[in-house]
Amino acid sequence: MVLAQLGGSISRALQQMSNATVIDEKVLNECLNEITRALLQSDVQFKLVRDMQTNIKKIKGKTSVVMFVGLQGSGKTTTCTKYAYYHQKKGWKPALVCADTFRAGAFDQLKQNATKAKIPFYGSYMESDPVKIAVEGVETFKKENCDLIIVDTSGRHKQEAALFEEMRQVSEATKPDLVIFVMDSSIGQAAFDQAQAFKQSVSVGAVIVTKMDGHAKGGGALSAVAATKSPVIFIGTGEHMDEFEVFDVKPFVSRLLGMGDWSGFMDKIHEVVPMDQQPELLQKLSEGNFTLRIMYEQFQNILKMGPISQVFSMLPGFSAELMPKGREKESQAKIKRYMTMMDSMTNEGNSNPKLMNESRMMRIAIGSGRHIREVMEMLEEYKRLAKIWSKMKGLKIPKKGEMSALSRNMNAQHMSKVLPPQMLKQIGGMGGLQSLMKQMGSMGSAKDMMGMFGGGGE
Ligand SMILES: Nc1nc2c(ncn2[C@@H]2O[C@H](COP(=O)(O)OP(=O)(O)OP(=O)(O)O)[C@@H](O)[C@H]2O)c(=O)[nH]1
């Protein structure tokens, strides 16, 4: 098995496991068996593989201590609860410790969040020593057999010596398996220095970017990743407990580039559109040409492929608005109706929507036996889709099999143009950016393993 295949098999096995709602013995065994098979096929020594299996199983029963660090207001406390809640849903037994004695109200906030999520918490109104609270909290929850103990630490408005000293002491006393640096997506270029300062005090092993629901694109995350040499594992997308997503590099990069999820789009084209139609479709899209004909053909593909609900969501724009969930039948009928009107449009001799006027619309309506209102609705739908698909203009058409590498390279190239030069320099120029994105891309499936296997530190 070549290295790329081995990597693929392992990623798939990990991804399957991270998709599971509860990671129990069975899910873990399936994942390990899958990895074992791939390693053996790659001629890795049997003894090595067996030892790996045993070691991973041993670590699984161990309690993980995860310490959160970040500046005040970065969203640390909120993120601690989100992280705990996320893992609770996956079958973990998390607990929260509030070692933030600096901000009045921090304990109340954590207590309130934890109570809402039914997660045990520990803190004190009287004790002013964060190290003492952290140690007591971790010990208490270890005794209670919690397997994920999350320690929230103090923040400050800016990086200052007292904060870092406190963090260092808490870390030394609690010996976390993973330290997570929480950063606000809007900090921009300050991210590098900030993340580096934290990394110099404690061994940051992962980054979480908060407030991605706002206007900020989160470009600073790249600097934080470069400074801490650690992956982004989650993003915060709102104030609520479940507004928390596993980090996915493609939409993140697309957002940075302001292009929508077009690299995912390329993969989707390959899934949905028949092979022989792909080059022509991509060619037309790269010319910025989303015609009614293309819309018609994609409708045909969708209707042919069924079950419609699964296929639909694969093409950009064709999902939420055109076909709300649970109303597949209605949507299918709507598509057929649109197609009849489009047929009548072509029969009428001119299918250019730009040349549409009321009398033409009326003729199309009569020709297809529909109401003029429906013709207008269909044209509106066309405009909406054309707008989404017009983003594909200028797209380079990859050869078969080059998809991932190409989208990665293009992303890096595009990104090097939109990133502030100073940030690009910090990251290590174009070469640094490319390897950073590769690193980010390969993190996908490893992220859930981090807490689990106690990794993440240096
Ligand atoms: N919109 C949005 N708001 C968020 C997100 N994460 C946190 N917040 C909000 O950001 C504000 C600050 O969050 P906290 O969790 O209190 O910040 P903190 O970093 O713990 O602050 P200190 O405890 O003082 O260090 C709160 O109003 C949160 O509700 C997010 O992903 N999106």
UniProtKB/TrEMBL annotation:
Q: Where is the SRP54-type proteins GTP-binding domain?
A: 231-244
Q: Name one Pfam family in it.
A: SRP_SPB
- Which CDD domains does the protein's record reference? SRP54_G
The record's Gene Ontology cellular component field reads: cytosol; endoplasmic reticulum; signal recognition particle, endoplasmic reticulum targeting
Q: Which domain of life is it from?
A: Eukaryota
Q: Quick one: where is this thing mainly located? A: cytoplasm
Which InterPro entries does the annotation name? AAA+_ATPase, P-loop_NTPase, Signal_recog_part_SRP54_M_sf, Signal_recog_particl_SRP54_hlx, Signal_recog_particle_SRP54_M, SRP/SRP_N, SRP54, SRP54_euk
Q: Which UniProt keywords apply?
A: Cytoplasm, Endoplasmic reticulum, GTP-binding, Hydrolase, Nucleotide-binding, Ribonucleoprotein, RNA-binding, Signal recognition particle
Where is the protein situated, by its record's location annotation? Cytoplasm; Endoplasmic reticulum
- Write down the chemical reaction(s) this protein catalyses: GTP + H2O = GDP + phosphate + H(+)
Listed under GO biological process in this entry are: SRP-dependent cotranslational protein targeting to membrane, translocation
GO MF annotation: an example: GTP binding
Which HAMAP family does the record cross-reference, listed alphabetically?
Answer: SRP54 (MF_00306)
Quote the subunit structure annotation. Answer: Component of a signal recognition particle (SRP) complex that consists of a 7SL RNA molecule of 300 nucleotides and six protein subunits: SRP72, SRP68, SRP54, SRP19, SRP14 and SRP9.
Task: Please state which protein family the record places this protein in.
Answer: Belongs to the GTP-binding SRP family. SRP54 subfamily.
Role this protein plays:
Component of the signal recognition particle (SRP) complex, a ribonucleoprotein complex that mediates the cotranslational targeting of secretory and membrane proteins to the endoplasmic reticulum (ER). As part of the SRP complex, associates with the SRP receptor (SR) component SRPRA to target secretory proteins to the endoplasmic reticulum membrane. Binds to the signal sequence of presecretory proteins when they emerge from the ribosomes. Displays basal GTPase activity, and stimulates reciprocal GTPase activation of the SR subunit SRPRA.
Q: Read off the domain note.
A: The NG domain, also named G domain, is a special guanosine triphosphatase (GTPase) domain, which binds GTP and forms a guanosine 5'-triphosphate (GTP)-dependent complex with a homologous NG domain in the SRP receptor subunit SRPRA. The two NG domains undergo cooperative rearrangements upon their assembly, which culminate in the reciprocal activation of the GTPase activity of one another. SRP receptor compaction upon binding with cargo-loaded SRP and GTPase rearrangement drive SRP-mediated cotranslational protein translocation into the ER. The M domain binds the 7SL RNA in presence of SRP19 and binds the signal sequence of presecretory proteins.
Q: What is this protein called?
A: Signal recognition particle 54 kDa protein
Q: Which organism is it from?
A: Ficus carica
